[in-house]
Design a protein that fits this description.
The chain is an alpha/beta fold and 367 residues long. Helices cover 33% and strands 16% of the residues. α9 links the parallel β13 and β14 (313-316).
């Protein structure tokens, strides 16, 4: 029985009919100019039975986006192309928020006309970036100057305004997985000695300021945040995660955001494995709003964490790739269809492995 997963919930100002959230999933199906495509309309409509869809990470600016064919929300063309996506989700009875993304030092200079990416400090991510010219080593970032922070806040506000024009139901700040906000939070990548570095209060300052700007556009009940408070994430780590993520939770509690999502990586997580204690209990003791947990859940594990009170909702990522009707499969106890052709079809352009996974009903009809 999965009765808790199927109960409605208020995620801030968003009324969700169930507690099965679709996690943000980068899929690389936009144009090279970061404009959403017709295939994306079908993809999101197919998954509209989720209690809430959190869109794939969506760039707030040219400076902040370094993933081939990921969508953006900084131009009128991008905004207009998102409209049929949100309309399709709403017509199918769903709800969708836009996840706003600045990748910081993870943006390769290829995407910036050869200029270095920005970050909290002059650090370099391990590994390599994916570019249209193949994989390339990451470059050393330049520290974001104090006089540039107002412009960064304006970039977030513009993307939030464009998300509203595009018909989304709210926005989520991507503050996880070693991207820009995470780079400011953690002392492994934030080496600053100004008002944005040093103490946990200073390192959480940008998180609070960006969230405040999003709230100024949407209201607190339609703004959420994603954090990844456990262990190394793309080379971004902290010597005392409980201290910095406890402070982040206090900042977000004071701002009364709609909900908080935590990525809880397993031992072989996409963004690095963790051997540090899970921080969700600490965060839950500070942040009193709806808490959404994510990463590698089965339906049974999700139901157990809801029943115990550990979480209020669960976000599923990869299961939603190959199961557009994941909610129905969970409801009837059907097995999840496996992802096929992975990892190639996760990110490569084309409809294969994107919008061609059948629902249970379609499988029965074909049989």
């Amino acid at each position: 029985m999965v009765e808790n997963l199927l109960k409605p919930i208020s995620l801030g100002a968003i009324e969700a009919p169930n507690r099965i959230v679709m996690a943000p999933l980068t899929r690389g199906r936009a144009t090279p100019g970061s404009v959403p495509t017709p295939s994306m309309i079908t993809y999101y409509r197919q998954r509209a039975s989720a209690g809430l869809i959190i869109s794939e990470a969506t760039g707030i600016s040219r400076e902040g986006l370094g993933w081939p064919s990921a969508p953006g929300l900084w131009t009128d063309e991008q905004t207009e192309a998102w409209k049929p996506v949100t309309e399709a989700v709403h017509a199918a009875g769903g709800r969708i928020v836009a996840q706003l993304w600045h990748m910081g030092r993870i943006v390769h200079p290829y995407f910036l006309g050869g200029e270095p990416p920005v970050s909290a400090s002059a650090t370099r991510a391990p590994g390599h970036a994916h570019t249209p010219e193949g994989t390339k080593d990451y470059a050393t970032a330049r520290p974001l100057r104090l006089d540039e922070i107002p412009r960064l806040l304006d970039d977030y506000a513009l993307a939030a305004q464009n998300a509203k024009k595009a018909g989304f139901d709210g926005v989520q700040l991507h503050a996880a997985n070693g991207y820009l906000i995470d780079q400011f939070l953690r002392n492994g990548t934030n080496l600053r000695d100004d008002s944005y570095g040093g103490s946990v209060e200073n390192r959480a300052r940008l998180l609070g300021e960006v969230t405040e700007r999003l709230i100024s556009v949407w209201g607190a009940g339609r703004v959420s945040v994603r954090l990844s408070p456990n262990g190394d994430s793309q080379g971004t780590d902290d010597s005392d995660p409980a201290a910095i993520f406890g402070e982040a939770a206090r900042v977000l509690q004071a701002l009364n955001i709609g909900f908080l999502e935590l990525r809880q990586p397993g031992p072989d997580g996409t963004f690095g494995k963790t051997d540090v204690p899970q921080q969700d209990a600490l965060i839950r003791s500070i942040y009193k709003g709806p808490l959404v947990l994510n990463s590698d859940y089965t339906a049974e594990q999700a139901e157990a964490d809801l029943a115990s009170g550990r979480a209020d909702a669960i976000s599923f990522g990869r299961p939603f790739i190959s199961n557009p009707d994941l909610v129905e499969r969970i409801r009837v106890g059907a097995p999840f269809a496996p992802n096929v052709g992975v990892p190639q079809t996760w990110y490569f352009p084309g409809d294969a492995g994107y919008i061609d996974y059948p629902t249970l009903a379609e499988v029965a009809t074909d049989a």
